[in-house]
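Researcher: Good morning. I'm working through a list of sequences from a screen, and I'd like to move beyond sequence-only analysis. For each chain I'm collecting a predicted structure so we can compare shapes side by side. This is the next one on the list. No need for commentary yet; just the structure.
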Amino acid sequence: MARIAGRSLWLAIPVGILSVAVVGALVWLAVPMIPVAVAWVGDSLRATAVAADEAADEPSPAEVLAVDGTLDCRDLYPDQLWAELIWHGDVLLSQGTTRPTIAAPELLDALAPTVRLSCSWALGSGGSISSALMSVAADSGPIVEASLAAQGFSCTNDDAGLTCTRSRGSDTESHVLRDGLWLSNVATGWSPDDYSGRLTTFIWP
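Model: Good morning. Structure tokens for this chain:
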């Protein structure tokens, strides 16, 4: 076997033996921890599965309101969307039951909805989002559609319900009516991606 100049064989042999001994010692020390590691992985997987099952069993916001339950703003948002909203350090959330400011205020007077929850987000640097979930008569869809269409909204009406949206520059307004509930979203100068769609899917899964 060829030898590399500058390396001493008498030094390499004991170093190699010492390295093997160190590796062996580490393996010997790690063996008792193998059952612990396996148990930890199993517990983590079981905890994740239980959490997923519990989340699936929780009623949706629409189901809560259908039995006259109460919600706060945290209940209204899926986890990922909530995280995106509060990620901004200068955001301020206001919760209440205030009527929303929408493009067709006459609708609020005509239909007299009951505001179950309103969540308004404001950025210190500018931009705001306001969402309100309201109870309204189940047959209000045609009135809302006609009024919003006259204001330039694009509306779709299917088996799920009525959805009307309008975008002007960085401002977006949307309205969703399903099962006697009316969700309005007004975003000015700021909005996470697909804000209205993600909120709608969470409220009516």
